[in-house]
Write a structure and sequence with these properties.
formyl-coa transferase, domain 3, 2 domains, 11 strands
Length: 395
C-alpha cells in the first residue's frame, strides 16, 4: 500500500493491544509490516489474546499486515529472525524484559546486526524499576495511575473508563516516538531504542489534574458528568434523555440563556459572574435542568448550536457511527478478506493533504502464518531455505 511510510519494513513482535496499536499506525500509512508470532498448536489455532484472528478486535488491530509464524525458541528460527532484522527499519515488541533477553531479540542483540534499527518497546510499568518485571494490563493501570479515582460519580467509588485507554494511549505515544526516531535517523543515520509504558502514558494523560497535584499538591476528586473546573459544562436533562452542554464562559452563559428564553436564569442574582456560578454549581445545575427539561434533545442541540453554544446528544456506539458527521468523515472503511469478504474497520484519525485517506484498506488481518513463504522470499530466503525452516519446525 502506498503511503508516506511505504519504504519502511517493520517486524512486529507485539501481542494484546498496546503494541499492535502502535504498529497499526505504521501499517495504515504504508509501512510493510510483518506480524511475527509463534506457530500455533492445533488447540490454539486461530486464537489470540484479544480473541480469534477473525474477530472484529483482531481484524481492526492487524489490518494491512502480513503474517509470519516463526518459532524464535529454535536456533533456526532465531537465525531467520536476525537475518530479517538486518534488513528491517523498525522492530516493535511488548515482551517482558526477561523474555526478550531470553529469546535474544532485545535491542542490544539486534543492534549488533543492524546499528540503524529503530527498536520500539511497550511495557506495563517501564523497562526497569521496582515494578519493571510486573505484567501490566489496562484495568490495573487505570487504577494505579489515579484515573479511576477521578472517574465516576462522587461518593460511588472508583470507576474504570469504558475503553482500554492506557493500552491505546501507550500505543499512540510509542507510534509518535517511532516517528521521532525516524526523523533523528534521517538526519544522523543513527538508530535508537524507543520505549514507553502503560503507566507512563496514563500519568501523562492525567494532564491538568496531574499538574494540579505536581504544582499545588491538589488531589482532584470525582466530578461525575460535570467538568472538574468549569460550570455549567456537563450532562443535563432534556425531556427525552440526557444531553451535554458547555456554557461556562460569561459570553456562552448569556448566549445559552438567550437561546432557551431563560430570562429568569439570566437575571438570577446568584449567577451573574463565572465565579458565582462555580460556587453554586449544584444549585445552578438544578435550575438549568428545570429549563432544559422543557425541550427535547433535538431541540436543544438545534437551538444551542445555532446560538454558538456547544451541545450534543449522548449516543450509543451504533448511533455514533450512524451520525451524519461521522458518516461524512468516513470513519469506517472496507478491508477485503479472502474468505469473509469486505470487513468495515475503523480508519486512522490522521488526515494528510499530501496523502488522502484511501477509500479502502489494503487488506484485512491475515491468519497466523498465512504469508510465510511470501515474507521470507521478500527477505531473500530461497525456496530450499524456506523448506528447511519448515522441516526444522522453525516456521
Amino acid at each position: 500500500m502506498k503511503g508516506p511510510l511505504s519504504e519502511l519494513r517493520v517486524l512486529d513482535l507485539t501481542h494484546a493491544r498496546a503494541g499492535p496499536t502502535a504498529v497499526r499506525l505504521l501499517a495504515d500509512w504504508g509501512a510493510d509490516v510483518i506480524k511475527i508470532e509463534a506457530p500455533l498448536t492445533s488447540e490454539a489455532a486461530g486464537r489470540a489474546v484479544t480473541g480469534g484472528r477473525r474477530s472484529p478486535d483482531e481484524q481492526n488491530l492487524h489490518r494491512n499486515k502480513r503474517a509470519l509464524a516463526l518459532n524464535l525458541k529454535t536456533e533456526a528460527g532465531h537465525a531467520a529472525f536476525m537475518r530479517m532484522a538486518e534488513q528491517a527499519d523498525i522492530i516493535v515488541e511488548n515482551f517482558k524484559a526477561q523474555v526478550k533477553h531470553k529469546l535474544r531479540v532485545d535491542y542490544a542483540s539486534v543492534r549488533e546486526v543492524n546499528p540503524a534499527i529503530i527498536y520500539a518497546s511497550i511495557s506495563g510499568f517501564g523497562q526497569d524499576g521496582p515494578y519493571g518485571e510486573r505484567a501490566g494490563v489496562d484495568q490495573i493501570i487505570q487504577g494505579m495511575s489515579g484515573l479511576m479515582s477521578v472517574t465516576g460519580e462522587p461518593g460511588e467509588g472508583p470507576m474504570r473508563v469504558g475503553i482500554a485507554i492506557s493500552d491505546t494511549s501507550a500505543g499512540m505515544f510509542l507510534g509518535q516516538g517511532i516517528l521521532l526516531a525516524l526523523l533523528h535517523r534521517e538526519r544522523t543515520g543513527e538508530g535508537q531504542w524507543v520505549h514507553t509504558s502503560l503507566l507512563e502514558a496514563m500519568m501523562c494523560k492525567l494532564d491538568f489534574q496531574g499538574a494540579r497535584y505536581t504544582m499545588s499538591a491538589e488531589v482532584p476528586e470525582q466530578q461525575g458528568n460535570d467538568h472538574p473546573y468549569h460550570t455549567p459544562m456537563g450532562l443535563f436533562h432534556a425531556s427525552d434523555g440526557p444531553v451535554n452542554i458547555a456554557a461556562s464562559s460569561q459570553r456562552l452563559w448569556q448566549l445559552f440563556c438567550a437561546a432557551l428564553d431563560a430570562d429568569e436564569l439570566a437575571g438570577h442574582p446568584d449567577y451573574q459572574r463565572t465565579g458565582e456560578r462555580i460556587a453554586r454549581k449544584a444549585q445552578l445545575n438544578g435550575d438549568i435542568n428545570a429549563v432544559t427539561g422543557c425541550f427535547t434533545t433535538a431541540e436543544l442541540v438545534e437551538r444551542l448550536n445555532a446560538a454558538g453554544v456547544p451541545c450534543g446528544p449522548v449516543n450509543d456506539i451504533g448511533q455514533a457511527f450512524e451520525d451524519d458527521q461521522v458518516r461524512h468523515l468516513g470513519m469506517a472503511r472496507p478491508a477485503p478478506h479472502p474468505e469473509l469478504g469486505d470487513l468495515d474497520l475503523i480508519r486512522s484519525p490522521i488526515n494528510l493533504s499530501a496523502w488522502p485517506q484511501p477509500s479502502r484498506f489494503d487488506h484485512a488481518a491475515p491468519d497466523p502464518g498465512q504469508d510465510n513463504r511470501f515474507v521470507l522470499s521478500s527477505f531473500g530466503f530461497s525456496d530450499a531455505e524456506i523448506d528447511e525452516l519448515a522441516e526444522q519446525q522453525a516456521i
